[in-house]
Design a protein that fits this description.
Blueprint lengths: L11 E3 L3 E2 L6 E2 L3 E3 L4 H14 L3 E3 L15 E3 L7 E5 L4 E5 L4 H10 L2 E2 L11 H6 L16 E7 L5 E4 L5 H7 L8 E8 L1 E2 L2 E10 H6 L1 H7 L2 E6 L5 E10 L8 H25 L4 H11 L3 E5 L1 H5 L7 E9 L3 H14 L8 E6 L14 E9 L5 H13 L3 E2 L9 H7 L3 H11 L8 H7 L2
Parallel strand pairs: 4-6, 5-6
Antiparallel strand pairs: 1-4, 2-3, 7-8, 8-12, 9-13, 10-11, 10-12, 14-16, 14-17, 15-16, 15-19, 18-20, 18-21, 19-20
Helix pairs in contact: 7-8, 10-11
């Protein structure tokens, strides 16, 4: 993912160019540090502050924004990894910040435990995923950050703050989704529960039907999402609900066809063809949207919620008030139909309940998410600009780690607790040790 040259744990070296997963963000830090302990990280922050260098931590680079880009010190937390403690009585697990979601989910499963909800990929570090508001879909269960019960944070002066609802509660209220603006997260305590089974039902459905029945599907399912294929009237729906089991995963042939051949291998070929010959995209979309068939399977949560994503893309996602999403989707479809745009990636729709995190995209309101994508290397600005115009007209909040053009003035209007967050930032990082150009735009200076 990153091409920055990092030293061995605890050391630092001069760095070359770093780039994110999608390749749309690059940075050339003065040096990269890979601390092997929290104390080494604290010292790296103190030293950078003394030298007048800014500091940013970056996980696996799965954000599409420049939230982690810096010309100062780039912190790679991968040596700070692993489960620190499991508390079965409290129903929590404490994990080091550089642990990937893949490693966390597998370790929890071995312990007979699970997160309640999660996103659809597992490559991110837990700190990167939570700091940008990564989420899945859920009627009652919210984002990964909403499952945090405590965290540790290195601040701009090198202090280590322990935060929870009882300890430094005002920091806890904001830092669960902090976009890297308040400090560097070193450990997170998540709420967990005994391992359970989910039964997934995937089913093709027409756009008109799924939008007209959206609230019904939402109310009847613990986790509902769907994908609309632009240039068609076709969607694919997915409903995940708890079940008694036993596990009945897709057969190896079915899994390979659906998850590898169609979702990755053939999809890669289709997108490459569409990039080379855009006029073919509508015809390809009609064929591709009919290729997926209905299927039902049962497994433990992370094997149902997540899936491999090997085709690279650029993404914009907006969180809308749930009651506005159907209208926005219909406007999006009408825009695509009357434009000359050629869109080879499906549009993804998910939901989340309201939560109490200051800068969560679901803060204080029932939410539906609409995500638009373009294949890596394909011009995306015209499509994203037109989509963003629709989303902002409905009071949308962009995902902190995905492409958008909004600024602090806009966020102050759509986040009632925006001033609370920026005031805390002024207190914890008055000299903007953790600042960068992206944070200047979205949080102000």
């Amino acid at each position: 993912m990153a091409t920055a040259t990092a030293g061995t744990a605890g050391n630092s070296r001069q760095a070359t160019t770093w780039h994110n997963w999608a390749g749309n963000v690059t940075a050339t830090p003065a040096r990269v540090v890979t601390p092997a302990s929290v104390e080494e990280l604290r010292e790296a922050v103190r030293r950078a502050a003394e030298e007048g260098l800014r500091v940013k931590a970056v996980g696996t680079g799965h954000s599409f924004t420049a939230a982690a880009a810096t010309d100062g010190v780039l912190v790679r937390p991968q040596a700070l990894a692993g489960i620190r403690a499991v508390d079965r009585t409290a129903g929590t697990v404490t994990v080091e910040a550089g642990t990937t979601l893949r490693d966390l989910n597998r370790a929890l499963a071995r312990e007979g435990l699970s997160l309640t909800n999660m996103g659809d990929i597992m490559e991110q570090t837990v700190s990167g995923a939570t700091s940008t508001g990564t989420h899945g879909t859920g009627r009652d269960s919210a984002s990964i950050a909403a499952q945090i019960r405590g965290l540790e944070l290195v601040t701009a002066d090198g202090r280590l703050l322990v935060c929870s609802e009882k300890e430094n509660p005002e920091v806890f209220a904001a830092a669960r989704i902090g976009i890297g603006a308040l400090g560097i997260v070193t450990a997170i305590t998540f709420a967990v529960e005994p391992l359970f089974f989910l039964t997934a039902r995937e089913e093709p459905m027409g756009f008109d039907r799924v939008t007209s029945e959206f609230e019904e599907h939402f109310a009847e399912n613990e986790h509902f999402e769907f994908y609309w294929f632009p240039h068609t009237g076709n969607c694919n729906t997915k409903r995940n609900n708890r079940s008694q089991g036993p596990a009945a995963p897709p057969g190896p042939v079915s899994a390979w066809v659906e998850d590898e051949l169609l979702s990755n291998g053939l999809f890669q070929v289709v997108n490459s063809l569409g990039r080379a010959v855009p006029a073919t995209i509508p015809s390809i979309a009609r064929v591709a949207s009919r290729a997926l068939s209905a299927r039902t399977y049962t497994d433990i949560p992370y094997k149902v919620f997540t899936s491999p994503r090997r085709v690279r893309f650029v993404e914009m996602e907006y969180a809308l008030p749930r009651e506005r999403v159907v209208e926005a989707l219909r406007e999006l479809r009408a825009m695509v139909d009357r434009s000359g745009l050629r869109i080879s990636f499906p549009v993804e729709v998910r939901t989340a309940p309201a939560d109490d995190i200051a800068l969560s995209t679901a803060s204080g309101r029932e939410t539906a998410y609409v995500a638009v994508h373009m294949y890596k290397g394909t011009p995306y600005q015209a499509y994203f600009t037109a989509a963003e115009r629709i989303f902002t007209a409905h009071g949308g909040r962009p995902h902190w780690g995905k492409v958008h053009t909004r600024d602090a003035e806009y966020f102050a209007q759509v986040y009632p607790r925006f001033g609370e967050f920026t005031a805390l930032r002024d207190r914890l990082d008055p000299d903007r040790v953790f600042g960068n150009d992206y944070l200047r735009r979205v949080l102000g200076d």
